[in-house]
Amino acid sequence: MAASSHFNTKSNFHGRPISLPSRLHPLTLKCNQHLETFLRSSNETSSPSLLFHKIDGLRDLIECVENLVQLPLTKDALLHDQHQENCVNILLDGSLRLLDVCSIAKDALIHTKECTRELLSNYKKKRRRNGCHCRG
């Protein structure tokens, strides 16, 4: 057997390829431009005409973001995130229930221990009254 036979050139890992877009969606670029313009204008002094210009820029930014959110890929990503959040919430609820069960079990064990001590104490008292001095 050759030394190179220990290395399998074929991968045993079967991963699903991720096809991410190689460039940003045009709406994303447009939203970024509106945001940069709005942020730049927020540093300027506010005369009435500039204030109207800022409001128009903000309106354009909001419209662009609304259009971006309506894209099918964006909706899918948001739904996927919501699904993951729901899964996390389900896991957290299960963990809390498990903690509750552990707390109840701990309380039951403490109660059982106290009852056992009380029974043992009563048993020893009864044995002493009956005159049995056996060890136990």
TrEMBL record:
InterPro entries reported in the protein's UniProt record: BPS1_pln
One annotated GO biological process: root development
Top-rank lineage group of the source organism: Eukaryota
Matching Pfam families: BPS1 (PF03087)
PANTHER family attached to this UniProt entry: DUF241 DOMAIN PROTEIN, OS06G0725500 PROTEIN
UniProt protein name: Uncharacterized protein
